Amino acid sequence: MNLLSNYPTEVLILLFLIVTFLQSGADKLLDWKGNVSFIKEHFKNSPLKNSVPLLLAIILILEIVAGLLMLIGVYELYTSEANAFALLGAELSAVVLIFLLIGQRLAKDYAGAMSLAVYFIIALWGVYLLNS
């Protein structure tokens, strides 16, 4: 058996996204007040300023779900070479990144929005490979 299954690129992309999304979700869970405070300040001049806790909770849930789907997907790639969960998780991670991009653009944090492009490209590459 190969260390990275028969899908080494897909597994590495999934592991990258799993770490990214589960760590981000865990950070929000472990320091909810600090994150809400930081994000409220970040969005104080945007149309999202009054919705920060709700939107942050939605992002938190989506990040955790995407990470768990991809984790299950890695397991399935190893055990049965099925990729449905991995693909769904990668697709959801791309959607979450679009949501984050919208937020960064509304907050006029163009540097932050630009940094999301790297994650988005990786997520799209994973979706492409898992869809092939």
What does this structure look like?
81% of the residues lie in helices and 0% in strands. With 132 residues, it is mainly alpha-helical. It has one domain (8-131). The radius of gyration is 16 Å and the shape is elongated. The chain starts with 7 loop residues before the first helix and ends with a helix. It is a multi-pass membrane protein. It is found in: Membrane. Pfam families: DoxX. Keywords: Membrane, Transmembrane, Transmembrane helix.
Short summary of the structure?
This protein has five helices and no strands. It is mainly alpha-helical and 132 residues long. The model has no long low-confidence stretch (mean pLDDT 94).
Backbone shape: elongated
**β content, as a range?**
under 5%
Fraction of residues in helices? over 70%
Q: What structural category characterises the helix and strand content? A: mainly alpha
Cα-based radius of gyration, to the nearest Å: 16 Å
> Biggest sheet, in brief?
none
Q: Alpha-carbon distance between the termini?
A: 22 Å
Q: Total helix count? A: 5
List the quaternary state of the chains. Answer: single chain
Low-confidence stretches: none
What is the mean predicted local confidence, pLDDT?
94
Order of helices and strands: HHHHH
Query: How many strand segments?
Result: 0
Number of domains: 1
